[in-house]
Amino acid sequence: MTVRVRYAPSPTGLAHVGNVRTAIYNWLYARKMGGTFIARLEDTDRSAERYSPEGIWDLEASMRYLGIVPDEWWVSGGPHEPYVQSRRLPIYLGYAEQLLQSGGAYRCYCTRERLEAMRTEQQLMKQPTGYDRRCRNLSVEERTRLDKAGTPSVVRLAMPLDGETVVHDLIRGEIRYDNRSQDDQVLLKSDGYPTYFLACVVDDHLMGITHVIRGDDWLSSAPKFVQVSRALGWEPPPLAHPSLIVGPDHKKLGKRHGSTQFAEFVRDGYLPEALFNFLVLLGWSPGSEQVELLSVPEIIERFGLEGLSEHPAVFDYDKLRWMNGQYIRASEPGRIIGLCLPYLSQAGLVSDRPTEEELAYVRRVVPLEIERLKTIGEITDLVRFFFKEPAFPAEFDDKGVRKWLKADSAGSILERQMLGFKAVDEWTPERLEEITHASAESLGLPFGPVVHTTRLAATGRTTGPGLFDTLDVLGRDRVLRRLAAVQSQLPLGADTVEAGGDA
Length: 503
Description:
This protein is mainly α. The protein is elongated and about 110 Å long. The protein is about 45% helix and about 10% strand. A hairpin with a 3-residue loop joins strand 5 (about 165-170) and strand 6 (about 175-180).
């Protein structure tokens, strides 16, 4: 048997990380087994509050970003076109009619008002909510009368009224469901659009899907999936429901925990390989080894459905940031510089179309901060002082100002540093460090206070990359101008003085 798996998202908004993880698992299983990965657009829910056609582009972008482009999908096509359910309506109508003829389904003529009243009464009586099967036992004469009158109707599954539906889940094992506890699910709506329960079963069969790997939230619908398949005379494919993703508080992952939409992580500057690696490990174990950083080929080699867990997986944002930082530092510097450029441009630190001079400066600045980067989006805050002179003292580190620039020695340190920097023959990190040692010696001060005072005056910050590498990149003119601007206002007495900006 050639493995064929599918990712079947609905365009109801931006892709959620949980759905993207499902796509990754399907892609991995196809690659591991030498099979085919299909993507199918399930767009039959046309309600205004849910249908989001622009979300289709985001679904495509998320797969392309991760490099899990389907073998068959609505973009490239394939032997089972169309891969968009709204373009397959006649197919579903035909199978709905087959179910009606075989007794596997029936028409329901209940109005929305009647269904709402039924649910309200069930809730008041503290009964389980669900359709009461009123239309299931209508006489032939009554059905004929309602059809002739043009009464709107839906098609419902005739769920068996006794016995059990046994679901064989590849992760959780055998699960038994009491048939009486299952609703007679709507399969075809009055507008001619199918629900998920009919469309996915039909498409999975016609597209030759051999394994269905889908989110944990679909587990409760598994008995209906099985019964619809059998009502059509088909044996359902094996099911696998990977674990639920939860937040640090062990509740279902939501906005209260942080970003949940895949596009938000891309926007913040998470690399595709980091997101892939992190999402794979949310509910899958590579084996007994405690390995966290795995390349895609390594993951494919180790992957198997037996490694998937049924236990909730905690979305650890700190771990994702750590992992992304590791991948940033393992990347070619040129790649990271290129990824940083759009963020620098958006922040107004470089032009939309950087000049050669700007690019040359960026190539010197960004590598100094790569060791501190956890996401690409952090680059603008880390390097801002390289491009724009921080306003003194408003944009300076307040604790640093109190400790270093309010010290009695601050003015003398800056004066001595400027004299040395003006006279130095070569503007290199090595020569700048020598000048600083000489300043400390001549002032009778330890080396540390001279370094900290100089860093703060030149950058507005108390931390950052090595001071002498930083001064080297800033250049003589910027450094002297900034030290002079601060030194001229010592001792600090005025509230604030605005500093000019450097390009």
